[in-house]
Sequence to fold (480 residues):
Amino acid sequence: MISNKLSSNKLYWNARPTNEGSTEFHVGHVNYMNLAGSWDPIDTSIVYKDGVFVVEKAPFTFTAPLLSDEATCFTNDNRYDIFTKAMLDTPSLSMHTIAQGVTSVKGEIYQMPNDDSRSAVLYPNAYPKYNADLIYHIRHGRAPRFEKLVRFNKPLAGDIKLEFIVEYSNSVEVQVGNYLIDERTLNQSNGFNIKGNGRGLGIKTLKLWDSNPTGRKIEEIQATMQKIGENKYLLTKYISADFFKDAVFPVYTDSTSTFYPDPSVETSSVDGLVRENYSTGSGISWASIRGGAGVSALDLQTESWPVVIFGDTTTNNWREFRRGAFLFDTSALPDTDSIDSAILSLYGSNKYDNLSATPTINIYSSAPASDTELVGGDYDSLGSTNYATAITYASWNTAGYNDFTLNASGLAAISATGVSKFGLRSESFDVNDAEPTWSANGLGFKIRMADYAGTVNDPKLVVTHSAVASTFKPRVMILL
Fold:
């Protein structure tokens, strides 16, 4: 049985011994559970063994073929969920991928720029008519990532499409937003969610960017996914030659990372609400309740009302005022990467409005005293600078994610070395200090929190980041 206590050798998913005899704790996943149920250090370096390239020491299974026209296999078979701190007993889910239109060339173990480990397989000039290489790359942080790269060594003469056959070991659902693939072809640029056996293997949003230090050029890549057989799909990426005309080389693909607040017991981050509230019949003025220091907090709920403005039974007095706090441990981001964009998403499950004006809510800074626990005194720690475009009451989704695309101020709040701290407030009333016409019932927005089962509905921060330009041979790369 695995518990939250360290074993005798001081190894756990985020802990390992030092040479000095102490134990160091990490915010990322540094050890994986082996078949014997004990912990071993993660090493995503690729080795050549028995005719294939493999990663042997990781919380997933990966094999790449000797030849470029054969199938890779990435298997989600992790035996321990670091987010729920529980054993996983769901069947594994494998994704087999075969690049189409490549010549048969031998692969070689390769070290990607800005990557300390030899965790990629390079198939040089696998696309000879494009003078392009095929690269399979493994990255591991809070969650594993299998990247399929095409690296162009010269501009394209015209638009092209790149195709991959993707086959899953079990029946899966392929979803874009609220739409499932059946016999249709889904065409979009925001990636695909693949779910099966209680596990997932996502295909993320694709972008190209160049290395212009004064104004990076970024372009999304359109993609389609078509069901072509039992558990089998054709993934097609469309590449525009226009991108290459004025690009500053080298040009890279993007990387995205997704972060969630910790559920209880929190180890590095937290989410919840902080509030100023009074018993019925003892409400106070708008100025006093809005400007208060806070009296209580809740950070263990599966669903919560983190934005509430509630009137007292006494006319023109107010009884409850709430603000939300959402912290994300983003220290797994590469310290030298640039933050290109980010979306903070909150899964709405209810709302009500009995005030006379239309409420809006938005993202702001927060500065709780602790990264893992909220207290009433954190109520006045939230800032007033907008980190995104406000969402109106009418637009608030009560059965899905509400996406806040962070602006420059919001992006600046993302930390590559620690915890990124955000807050949620009513913009129209709270931040703008605009007292609405009194109502005993007020308004509220309900959200699913990190303690909700799994991470499918959790608050999440998706960060698109990219490595800084290096000095190696100019090339164009796209991530598939």
